[in-house]
What does this fold into?
Amino acid sequence: MLCRSADLIAEAHASGSGIAAFNVITLEHVQAVADAARRTGRPAIVQISQNAVRHHSGDVMPLAAATTAAARSRDARLALHLDHIEDIALLHRTAECGASSVMFDASRLPDEENIAATREAARWGHAHGLFVEAELGEIGGKGSAHTPGVRTDPEDAARFVAETGVDALAVAVGSSHAMVTRTAALDLELIARIRREVPVPLVLHGSSGVPHTALRAAVAQGMTKINIGTLLNIAFTRAVRAMLAEGPDLVDPRPYLASARDAMTHAVAECLTALTTPDSP
Ligand code: G3H
Ligand code: ZN
It folds into this structure.
């Protein structure tokens, strides 16, 4: 069933639980998330980044259509989100491609320009019935808030949300994008402080580098949307590499793509279960 991101996020926010959002690149990624959501009985957000759209020759529709079709054909609750969108033309395709939410990313701009651009994106998104996520930039620096070492200041975060009108805020609390080891240490106390200051749901990016126990602790402190991408790609590539090493004469892609899909389904199901399973005492 195709759900609205706002509903899945509001449900998680209200109950103090987390909603996982998985970045997809290929059809097999989409199928893996849909199958894992069905198998575990947990909702999930499928997200397509601007970089993934670029990989598909700038066309968002192939992956978006695959996602909405997968959602409609399976007994699973899925929503579609566009992620890290910097290009205004792509932002403006959000509603027509079937997505119900978008992360508008102007975090590379100086703060005041980020605020102005994000306010306009939120205004446009709300006029089109969309849920809009955004993030502050690295204060005083040139990188995004997810540059390693950067931390979100709770008061800056509250001001950013008040001035832009966004529905969710990505915050920098110790994770960074594209980690291939699960060794990131989150600042749980900072999450709790931001939670107290910021009225909208908080989003953790770069969650592939965070151990499951720390993700659960982050949710317990007030994190709501958990973005996971690299973890799927590690599973995909490891499975393909193993199969090609075993069968150097293999030319049909179906066996190794099926193996990659199985590995991603397993990884996604583990995340979905881990986010809602309490730690043993
Ligand atoms: O927006 C996407 C996420 O932040 C994914 O980050 O690939 O490091 O898990 P990750
Ligand atoms: Zn991200």
